[in-house]
Specification:
Elements (H helix, E strand, L loop, with lengths): L14 E5 L3 H12 L4 E5 L2 H10 L4 E5 L7 H10 L5 E6 L4 H9 L4 E4 L4 H30 L3 H8 L3 E6 L4 E4 L2 H6 L3 H4 L13 H8 L12 E6 L10 E13 L18 E11 L1 H14 L10 H18 L2 E10 L1 H8 L1 H17 L6 E6 L2 E9 L2 H16 L2 E3 L2 E3 L2 E9 L6 H17 L4 E4 L7 H18 L2 E10 L4 E13 L3 E3 L5 H6 L3 H21 L4 E7 L2 H6 L2 H12 L6 E5 L3 H4 L1 H14 L2 E7 L6 H6 L4 E4 L1 H4 L10 H13 L2 E4 L5 H9 L4 E2 L8 E2 H15 L6 E8 L1
Parallel strand pairs: 1-2, 1-3, 3-4, 4-5, 16-17, 19-28, 21-22, 21-28, 22-23, 23-24, 24-25
Antiparallel strand pairs: 6-7, 6-10, 8-9, 9-10, 11-13, 11-16, 12-13, 14-15, 18-19, 18-26, 18-27, 19-20
Helix pairs in contact: 5-6, 12-13, 18-20
GO biological process, one term: phosphorelay signal transduction system
Keywords: Phosphoprotein
GO molecular function: catalytic activity
Length: 740
Amino acid sequence: MNVNHDPGHPAHLPRLLLVDDEPRLLSSLYELLRDRDYHLVTATCGGEALEHLERMAFDLVLLDLRLPDIGGHQIMDIINARHYDCDVIVMSGETGIDAAIGALKRGAYDYLRKPYSREELLKTVENALQQRRLAADNGRIAERLETSEKMYRYLVDSSPDIIYTLDHEGRFTFVNDRAWQLLGFTREELIGKHYSFVVHDEDLDRARYVFNERRVDERASRNVELRLKCNTVHGAANGERTFTNTLMTISLNAVGMHLPEGATAKHRQREFFGTYGVARDITDRKRAEEMISYQAYHDILTDLPNRMLFKDRLSLAVIQAKRKRSELAVMFIDLDRFKLVNDTLGHVKGDELLQQAAQRLKGCLRRGDTLARQGGDEFTIVLPELRDHADAKALAEKFLDTLQKPFDLDGHVVHISASIGIAVYPNDGETIDELLRHADIAMYQVKALGKNGHSFYHASMLDMSHQKIALEQALRRALENGELEMYYQPQVDVATGRIIGAEGLMRWNHPQRGLLSAGEFLPFAEENGLMLPLSDWMLGALCGDLLAWNEAGGNALRMSLNLSPQYLDRGDFFEKMRSALTRFGISPAQIEVEITENICIRNPQYAIEQLNKLCQLGVSVAIDDFGTGYSSLAYLHRFPIHTIKIDQSFVKEIHDGNGHYPVILAIISIARGLGLHLVAEGVETEVQARYLQANGCITMQGYLYHRPMPLASFIGVLAAQNMSQGWVQAGVAPPLAIRA
């Protein structure tokens, strides 16, 4: 949907540009505003929004931060750089405070967190337009003021700000009508009164500094915030309002005054006459800032502190416990069976369950305890000034008891429980990260033992089983945070010494443990159902790297994807492959799917059908680690195989160039008999290389030739080789294998 400029729209109607890449949200926003007196224009991406801004003037831009091409913050930077005369209301689902602060720093009028209410949006839009109208009015008035002394009184009385003057003792000598509108005091009630009459008691010290300002240059006080009292008897809004006072001092030469006896002319100075000031009402802005700050530190669903605020409070509690040499406890709570309820009844009911559970947990807290939502169905609690472990144990049992009572979700009665891990400062950690991590480990110990319980952390929980759980959690975050990367180990034609392909090796740039090889985390992925998203990522990374290589002017390499049996069993791999090839513009002839022999015994006929579909698409197939699994020549003959890879476990057995290694010889013989390409993995010594070459295997990879390297380094190595030996003629090279 795109609403372009319509000449039929009256020119005086406010122009609003609605920018959101989600069609449903954009349509909903348009429908919400269409019946009002606005001229609406929509854009589904940043580029389209900038085109509209270039063509026509807008009063207001309703801007989503997450856009597919240009981020909302960048669009605001462009608006500021090009001096587009429009206000911006940011609408975002971002939960971090940085997004809101970034928007406000760039001059956003307001920041609405999705999902927002209809009334909140309409009020914010109207207030923004009203502010523009007031700003425009002030601009016009200022122009008239320059040419007409008569307009001065009009400007003062119609100003949206309170304009006042004080004498040298701080008594009001003039105040405009705005004081009545905002504070409820008439001019007569204020004239002659001391400024302390309207200043909030807690702000009097700051007021003395401001209202006694005597400087006349740029050093005079500017934008000092004060709270002023309201006269509620006369019906003024709210009991107090906040103002920014912009001050200038009026000073006049003494006229007709005699100096004190004995004074000389050189001591004569300008006599202080009084103070002139402008007080701008910033109450609504302060409330908006407080709301944004509150939302930045609180979970919007449960209204509990979020992870950021929880860490702040835990940090303070740790400092206090260290000072008092006392203990504190950190609890990590995960709701059992929440996913089942969420998947069965839907996310709306799931959100209701989280809200009710949060209220029950909150009702169990002691004074001074902090309950926060970490995200999903996970909650954390800090218990400061812990007397002993029994306090934490009693509270954990109280949590379990209250959660075991049935929940009523609009007629749906559901039952849940919780797994609670407890870590105690300082024995279980002296930093907030250690305490949270150990409480998390203790919680997973409860999960492993059947859920619905609590456990204190102890050092024995750091055994291998719990390291697997921690690694599984980190691996899920790695997919979200872009911590995975493909490395490439070149394959060498030993007859010519040229690199003719490579095997891709998945690496994990772990934030704490550094670079991890595939063998250190893929087994855990298999156990915890993460092979499907990992395989999706690997397919995209494969095509992206191949596209980068093609764009760099390299040869038409054929790259291979090591396919997990789980991924093949899912049934939609063929469609995902075809979609990825289309999206990246990759020829199917450049892709090779790599399988293990064990696929043959899972569901061989189904596997054959899936692989045949890939072959019809133009994708080739290889068998990886041949000889280590369920070797069946019958299945090997039936499968559409193009390549056999000799597993490095067999290559490592070669210690004598004159020895006899029947398994190696049998694999070479099978490949030769079936007319298949052959690659030896893990070649590390000259003895191994000479033996393999002497018996007919000439394509090798291993530390003897190259270690695995990132894509950029691999492209550099190939480029250097091609520059020294000339580019290989066009055609399909032996496979560049991508292995998980």
